[in-house]
Design a protein that fits this description.
With 179 residues, this protein is mainly alpha-helical. It is built from 6 helices and no strands.
Length: 179
């Protein structure tokens, strides 16, 4: 059973992960409006991945006998100055989420909630990947530029992104691939 403190904190994280999906969906819509379908695809898949994270938290709370309390989401921005600005905001956002996850780990340890601590370690690792991915794209956009052939090459590259088999299986209800 989750403590009230842990239950409340995990509910806040469900909201944060759902907002992340909302933010990335807005970024995808922004890229679609610019005709940058590859960048839009990358962000759309990122939004789906964030919903997967929210569902993981949701299922964990339910599985531990907690109470899920969904709350309103803040409206995300709808336009950005450039593709680089979008990914810079992505990195800032992912660093914020990393801090939230780290705070949850600290709370789990303070509450001697070993099950939550173990569950959260997956997210600790995931956040390293999320930040690294955003940093890599930022560096490439700085080299390629926000306009012209370099941007179109980045659009094509990012358009080749696919969901990880684990996320795809979870979102479609298909069996998860063997590890």
């Amino acid at each position: 059973m989750l403590s009230d403190k842990m239950n409340n904190a995990l509910n806040l994280q469900i909201n944060a992960e759902t907002f992340s999906a909302y933010l990335y969906a807005s970024m995808a819509a922004h890229f679609e409006s610019l005709g940058l379908r590859g960048l839009a695809r990358w962000m759309s898949l990122q939004a789906r991945e964030e919903m997967f994270h929210a569902i993981k938290f949701f299922n964990f709370v339910v599985g531990r006998g907690g109470q899920v309390r969904l709350t309103a989401l803040e409206a995300p921005p709808v336009t950005w100055a450039s593709p680089l600005a979008v990914f810079q905001e992505t990195l800032v956002h992912e660093r914020k989420v990393t801090g939230l996850i780290n705070n949850l780990v600290n709370l789990a340890k303070a509450e001697s909630d070993h099950a939550s601590d173990v569950f959260l370690q997956w997210f600790v690792t995931e956040q390293v990947e999320e930040e690294s991915s955003a940093e890599e794209i930022i560096q490439k956009l700085k080299l390629a530029g926000d306009t012209g052939p370099g941007l179109f090459m980045m659009d094509a590259e990012l358009g080749r992104r696919v969901l990880s088999p684990l996320v795809a299986a979870a979102l479609t209800g298909a069996p998860a691939p063997a590890a």
